[in-house]
Amino acid sequence: MSGAVLGADGLLRCPWGDSTDDYRVYHDTEWGVPVHGDDALFERIALEAFQSGLSWITILRRREGFRAAFAGFEIAEVAQFGPADVERLLQDESIIRNRAKIEATVANARAALELDGGLDPLIWRFAAEPGRPAPSTLADVPAVTPESTALAKELKKQGFRFVGPTTAYALMQACGLVNDHLVDCHAR
């Protein structure tokens, strides 16, 4: 597997982070940066669920469409969506039109509203312990960890859908609960 690669700009990055301009910006400015706030984390949960079975670039390039379609991922707004909203979203070409994922996003907003203490503290309870060794190659980056399995289990217990251990780990990576930038990556 690959270690960090040298980009045209002279910076070493994780190989996936230098494959397209969209990935380069996302890798350098967002991926692995700590995300806090219930709505911000809800957005990431929703986007990771929509990504399931697809490439992340597909979601990344439609993110603004998702934000418009899902009321800026404001939990209280999305929790009010009803059957007519689901039908509207199924016609919206700016997002991935998958009924199960749309309905899961609405259900997840409702579950988030019911959380005692909010989404942010629930998710951040599962952050990796500091001092974890930095991965040297992509082969060193896991797809699932005990923490992501525990996070997925807790989210499901709270009524969330499309939050399996692999999706939970992708969320943890994207939101900075773990730092999986390769050891030589400039973003580490």
TrEMBL record:
List the SUPFAM superfamilies hit by this protein, alphabetically.
Answer: DNA-glycosylase
Q: Which InterPro entries match?
A: Adenine_glyco, DNA-3mA_glycosylase, DNA_glycosylase, Tag
Report the superkingdom from the record. Bacteria
One Pfam family cited in the UniProt record for this chain: Adenine_glyco
**Residues passing through the membrane, by range:** none
- PANTHER family reported in the protein's UniProt record: DNA-3-METHYLADENINE GLYCOSYLASE 1, DNA-3-METHYLADENINE GLYCOSYLASE I
What protein is this chain from? DNA-3-methyladenine glycosylase I
